[in-house]
Specification:
Shape: globular
Distance between the termini: 26 Å
Protein name: DNA ligase (ATP)
Bound molecules: adenosine-5'-triphosphate, manganese (II) ion
Number of strands: 14
Organism: Sphingomonas kyeonggiensis
Length: 301
């Protein structure tokens, strides 16, 4: 089945054949965290990360000299990552065909870490059929003055509006400033229909409560509002994936939470790469069982 599945049982400690060089290099200065620490985090959490990360086109945020130096967003590569990082040819808007990256296992994750990767971002569709999204993301981007309370309220309201349309959704702490409301889909509709739905949904919210929301990308229209970034939901867009580390202060990670947990969490950077044991325990525990899994399709609106 195409729906991501949680592994029934987690291996005690995953192993990888990939050799990590410069393990002592500090890549989170100020947090005293090294490339080795990041590799250990991704190795430990691979069993809970791979159900989301594997088999979809990805982009990487690479920071070879650490997060405080130059980082770059990488979409394509012709082969410099080695045998554990796979390629899928995808047609671009202009008709050209580019090799996108995807991973299948823990070695793929660590091969990317070895190449200076900190963040993994995924398409909302699988390599098996890139034209049909298996996940929508409403990326809530608050204006600078707003607090996390406003973001949480917005996420909860969006959840209710989606539920009215028959869609179940889950919150993901972005590890940055916001929350992503994640809507799994059984891949049936194609990207234009998904984008159209998300745009109409977001614009309707912004029209109903213009003092709280905007669906307009322009920074100027964000003043005191939350931008509902529906543009994550177009062919070729990416969003950060669950359990991915962010190249930000504190080495936060994008973390799945439940709606009821979200009410008591006071920061989208609540979890960090120091929390691998807690994240593993949570992911296999009762509260997060079924997180992000639903057999549902785009509503007919
Ligand atoms: P935050 O909560 O701080 O907004 P975020 O991950 O949602 O964190 P955004 O800036 O809102 O960050 O970006 C949303 C998504 O857009 C990212 O997760 C990423 O997948 C994609 N993205 C970000 N920067 C780039 C970039 N330079 N090129 C292409 N896609 C990007
Ligand atoms: Mn965002
Ligand atoms: Mn955004």
């Amino acid at each position: 089945d195409v729906v991501a599945e949680r592994p029934a049982k987690l291996p005690e400690s995953p192993v990888s054949a990939v050799k990590i060089s410069s393990r002592e290099r500090v890549i989170f200065p100020g947090d005293d965290l090294t490339k080795g620490d990041l590799a250990d985090y991704y190795l430990a959490t691979a069993p809970i990360t791979l159900p989301w990360l594997a088999n979809r086109p990805i982009s990487l945020v690479r920071c070879p000299q650490g997060r405080a130096r130059q980082c770059f967003f990488q979409k394509h590569d012709a082969g410099s990552f080695g045998e554990h990082v796979h390629h899928v040819d995808i047609r671009e808007k202009d008709g050209s065909v580019e090799p996108y990256l995807y991973l299948g296992d823990v070695d793929g994750i660590l091969a990317c870490v070895q190449m200076g990767t900190i963040e993994f971002h995924g398409w909302g569709s699988l390599v098996a059929d890139v034209e049909k999204p298996d996940r929508l993301v409403f990326d809530l981007d608050p204006d600078e003055g707003l607090g996390f309370e406003d973001v949480k309220k917005a996420a909860a309201d969006i959840k209710e509006h989606l539920a009215e349309l028959g869609l179940t959704s889950w919150p993901l702490l972005s590890g940055g400033k916001g929350v992503h409301v994640v809507v799994p889909l059984t891949p049936e509709a194609e990207w234009p229909a998904a984008k159209s739905f998300c745009e109409r949904f977001s614009r309707a919210l912004a029209e109903a409560e213009p003092e709280r929301f905007t669906a307009n990308l322009k920074k100027a229209s964000r003043k005191g509002r939350i931008f509902i970034d529906y543009l994550r939901n177009q062919r070729g867009s990416t969003a950060v994936l669950p359990y991915v580390a962010r190249a930000r202060e504190g080495a936060p990670v994008a973390a799945p939470v439940t709606w009821s947990e979200l009410r008591d969490i006071d920061s989208p950077r609540h979890f960090s790469i120091r929390d691998s044991a807690e994240l593993l325990a949570r992911a296999t525990g009762r509260a997060l069982r079924g997180w992000g899994l639903a057999d549902q399709v785009l509503p007919d609106v």
